[in-house]
Fold:
Amino acid sequence: MGMDVFGTAPTTERGEYFRNNVWWWRPLWNYCIEVAPELTSEVNGEYNNGDGLNAEGAIALSNILLERLVEGILRNTKKITTQRLRIYHARIVSTAIPQAFVRMKLA
Structure:
């Protein structure tokens, strides 16, 4: 059982059909409500009853979701990079600087 989303007048193959099982649809729709309440407030996305966005709304929602995806990727990349820099810094400090100086200045 799942949610089937059909494009009514798709301009690309990707816009023809999207399916998500019932366990994954609800979190996705709730996220859509959270990030785009102005687009989703008039849509009954809890049921597979044919309700949905028009083409303009669908494009706007997809752009918002894409922006959020990129933001999350960048945020995660920044977090990973920061963690790696800390590890590299610790390695450099522990091998290149005398331990007495490390304890005195950096520890």
Summary: The beta strands are 2-6, 17-21. The CA atoms of residues 97 and 103 lie 10 Å apart. The chain has one domain: 2-106.
